[in-house]
Amino acid sequence: MTNTFRRAVIVGAGAGLLAMRPAYAALVATPSQTEGPFYPTSFPADMDNDLVQVRGQAARAMGTVLHLQGRVLDLNGRAVQGALVEIWQCDSQGLYDHPRQPGHERRDQAFQGYGRMLASGDGTYSFRTLKPVAYPGRAPHIHFKVATSTGRVLTSQFYVAGEPGNERDGVFRAAARDPRQRERIEMRLAPASGLEPGAVATTMDIVVG
Ligand SMILES: [Fe+2]
Questions:
Q1: Which pLDDT tens digit goes with each residue over 123-164?
Q2: Is the sign of the CA dihedral 175, 181, 185, 186 positive or negative?
Q3: Ligand 1 centre distance from Cα of residue 103 (Å)
Q4: 11 alpha carbon to ligand 1 midpoint, in Å?
């Protein structure tokens, strides 16, 4: 293949891709929010995407199990492949696995507190974790951070739709300035009894701007 011909093939393929690309409406980015003081200072030995079960422990974490899943997308709705997705949250008593957490020693040792995974080829991520609970000064929330392979980092938090505490939470209010941003960070929970008795589930796409 001559260089000129190869170039023509490449240009032709590129033009074809452009023509095939659907006209996505631009998506609203997931608003960024503070990382807060409880991002781990050291990572747990088990940091997979099942926070309810710690490897090597018989006990399951206390609390309501939440199946959290979704896709990491760019502003055009295209999958962001291979992004590192991290979540961290307090246990069912409102205690983080963090040295700065007062009462840290009372925390639920069966709760992993932090987990991470790489989004798959179509941008999908999933965690088995807990429905978040409130602690003094904050509405229930799950912290998350997404780092793409191109170096973009989004740090934010998910909340529970319908929690009256959301409107009193300054971090939530600052992030949910319009209804489309609110939709990005409020989890609508549905029973997931088919998946796991007593559990709830939600799908939250994360749009990295
Ligand atoms: Fe927090």
A1: 999 999 999 999 999 999 999 999 999 999 999 999 999 999
A2: positive
A3: 15
A4: 49
Q: How far is the CA of 141 from the centre of ligand 1 (A)?
A: 6
Distance CA(6)–CA(2), nearest Å, equals 6
CB 176, CB 162: distance < 8 Å:
no
* Average pLDDT in the chain: 91
Residue that is written with structure tokens 């229930």 in the block: 140
Instruction: Single out the residue of 168, 111, 122, 125 nearest to residue 101, CA to CA.
Output: 111
DSSP state of 65: E
Query: Per residue in 10-40, pLDDT tens?
Result: 444 444 454 455 555 589 999 999 999 999 9
List the end-to-end C-alpha distance of the chain, in Å, as a whole number.
Answer: 40
